[in-house]
Prior knowledge:
Blueprint: H1 2-19, E1 24-25, H2 27-41, H3 49-59, E2 62-69, E3 72-79, H4 84-88, E4 96-97, H5 99-105, E5 115-119, H6 134-142, E6 151-154, E7 157-162, E8 172-176, E9 182-186, H7 188-197, H8 205-214, H9 221-231, H10 237-248, H11 253-260, E10 268-269, E11 277-280, E12 285-288
Parallel strand pairs: 5-7, 10-12
Antiparallel strand pairs: 1-3, 2-3, 4-5, 6-7, 8-9, 11-12
Amino acid sequence: MAQERIRIAKPDIVRLFERQSSKILTRTEIERVFETNREFWRLRRTMRVEEFIEFLLAKTRLQKVILDFPNRRVVRYTWGERPLYELLMIVHPSCYFSHYTAVYFHGLTEQLPKTVYVNQEQRAKPSSQAGLTQDRIDAAFRRPTRLSNNFTEYENRRIYLLSGKHTGNLGVIEAEGPDGEALHVTGVERTLIDITVRPEYAGGVFEVLKAYRLAKPQVSVNKLAATLKKLDYVYPYHQAVGFYLERAGVYKESSIALLSKLEFQYDFYLMHQIRDKAYSEKWRLYFPKGL
Length: 291
């Protein structure tokens, strides 16, 4: 009798889910729908939401999606197939796409990346009181870059959930995804800074340089410099940003001067563990030979 009741109610249940504005749901949201409508659907009082969900998974378009990150397991339900990027937007309420994924969205690469970067910012932390010295910079960049292990595999993609520096989502914009879905992604200027800081999340320094070159029609160097100042990094990343702008060969000297006029107190590095390095006197920067 109980199964008969839910089968009789199935057209009404399907109609309600078809009319839902959001096609990606949490268990809590499904439970809310279940509790609100169970009397109208004349479902038995002993039926639990788990049983209701199992019926929907077996008999309707509802699908279960599991993103099994090492640091967090994300479970969502979709009504029918949903685009991957739209699905990833609900990993966290304030997350956004960054690094190589943002590079791809802005058309700054000729590659089709198989890795997707989703950034969920950390909580605000007190500023580091440790003074910057040349010895500390040298020691830090002799070591490997600290890269995230918080990733999972889904639909033949590697999905990273990064815990980025707290910025209040500075430089994050709304954008339209490949399937017309509404997304949040770092704007061009913030993207160039992010991949300068972590070139490993953008295919390496050669891909970063290409991104700077292709960004010329879109980027405001004034905004780039202002965003970098607001991000307030301990390390002098303005030296690396200025180097990329100059090496790209497409920016005006007056634009590059916005970075070259800043303070240059230390030698810096374009990346960690440079094996065969060259040195730019102008930018006080070590970089790989051949770049």
